[in-house]
Amino acid sequence: MHAIDSGKYDGAPMNCSKRIHLVYLKSFFLAYVTAMRPFVLRFGFALTSLTGLCSCMQAQPQYRIKEIAPPAGYSAFAPTALHSSGAMVGYVDPPNFLEGVYADAFGTPTAIPQYGSGFRDVSFFDLNGSGLALGYANSNTGGPAAMLLWDSVSGYRRILHPGTDNVSVKRINDAGQTAVMAELSPGVLTAFIWDAVNGFQTLADPGGEASVNDLAESGRSVGTATISGSSVGVVWNPDRTVAHLIHAAGGYLSVSGDALNSSGHVAGMTFLSGTGDVGYAWSESMGFVPTGSFQKDGLEWYMGARSVSESGVVLGVRVTASTSGLGGLEGGVAIWTHQSGIAPIESLLSPDSAQAQHYYLSASASDGSFVGWAIRSDQSQFYYHAAPVPEPASALALAVGLAAIARRRRAHRREKVG
Predict the structure, then answer these.
(1) N or C: which end of the chain has fewer CB within 10 A?
(2) DSSP state letter for 346
(3) 249 within 8 A of 287, measured Cβ to Cβ
(4) Nearest residue to 291 (alpha-carbon basis) of 324, 311, 266, 309
C-alpha cells in the first residue's frame, strides 16, 4: 500500500518498475528546480534507483515511538486527538485529567476552558490543521450533549441544527468540514456534512437509513447503511452523492464503513460466523479484503479497524474472536497493509523506539501517525507518539534535494561576494 510517491492509492500493490520510475521523477524534479549540475543529477538517479529497489521489498512500514513530554507547566499529558502536523489535544495532570489543553506542533500549550454553565466534562476527539478541535460537553441536566468546535483564537462554537438539539459530531478535516449526525425525528438519524459557510448539507440517501463515520481531506465521506435488512458500507463523493456501496463477500456478513482516506480506500468491520467481528479493507480496484489474523501470546488476534492513512495503511486495535471465550479481548495496536497483511505494532518498531510490553491506541492522523498509552514491564505507564519511519527511497530523495539546495545557496552567496 505504499503509494506515497504517486499521491494516489487505488488498492492494488504498486508495481516495482512503476515505483522506481516515480522515484526517478522525484529525483529529476528536485534536481531541476535546484539547478543541479549533470553529474549530481546522475548521482541522484543512481542512488534513488538502488533505494527504490530496496523499498519495493519492504514488507511493512516501520514506526518510531517516542514518549510524549508534557507541555510546559504540566506534569502529564494524555492525548485524545492528533493532527499530521504533530499538534494534539488532550488532558493534563493526574489523577482526573479534567483540564483540556491544546498543544501545537511545537508543543506550546494553550489551556482550554470549560464550555459554560449547564455543561461539564468537555471531550475532544478530532483536530484539523487550523487548530480547530472537535468534541462535546455533557449536559448537567441529562439533556443532549453540546457539539463543539474550539480554537485558541475564537474560543468555542456550538454546532446546532435548527430542527433538533440532538446532534452528534464525528470528524473534521482541514477545510473545516465536519461529519455530523442529527436526530430530526424520534429514532430517525440523518447524515450531514457541516461547515461554517454552508451549514448542514444532507448526504444522499443510499437506499436505507445511514450513518456517517469518517471524512477525508478530499471531502469524501464514509458510513454504514441498512439496506434490505443488511449492513453495508457507503462511500459518498465530495459533492455528497453516493459513490459506492460496499458489500461483504466470501462468507462474511455485514459491513460497517468506519474510516477512509482521500483516495477512497475504506476500512471497517465485518462479521464472520464462528469468529465474530473482524476487520476488512476495501477499494474500488482491490474489492473487499478481510484483514486476517496473527498469533501472539498463545492467542489468535484479529483487527478492529480504526483508521486508514493516506498511503493506505490500516491501523486498528487487535482483538480476540468474540467466540473464543475471552469476549473480544482487546490487546494493543495492529497494522495491516495489502502487501503484507496484519502484524502487531511490537514487530514493526525501530530500534530507538520507547520500549513497553503493551501499546494501546487513542487517536491517529492522516499520515499514519498515532498516539496512545503504553505499559512497561514494571507496570508503569507513559503516553506516546508513533510516526512512520520514512522509506529509504523517500528519505534519500529528500536528502539529495536538500544537498542541492545547500549547493545552490553557496553558489549564490559566492556570486554576491564576487
Answers:
(1) C
(2) G
(3) yes
(4) 266
Q: Report in angstroms the alpha-carbon separations of 284 from 243, 280, 289.
A: 10, 14, 11
pLDDT tens digit string along 277-332?
899 999 999 999 999 999 988 888 899 999 999 999 999 998 887 655 545 567 79
Residue-wise pLDDT tens digits, 338-394 = 999 999 999 999 999 999 999 999 999 999 999 999 999 999 999 999 999 987 644
The three-state (H, E, C) secondary structure of 100-123, written as one string = EEEECCCCCEEEECCCCCCEEEEE
- Type and span of the H or E element at 19: helix 16-33
Closest to 334 measured CA to CA, from 354, 315, 350: 315
Residues belonging to the chain: 418
Q: Give the angle subtended at the CA of 278 by the CAs of 236 and 390, to the nearest 5°.
A: 70
Phi then psi for residue 335, to 5 deg, are -125, 140
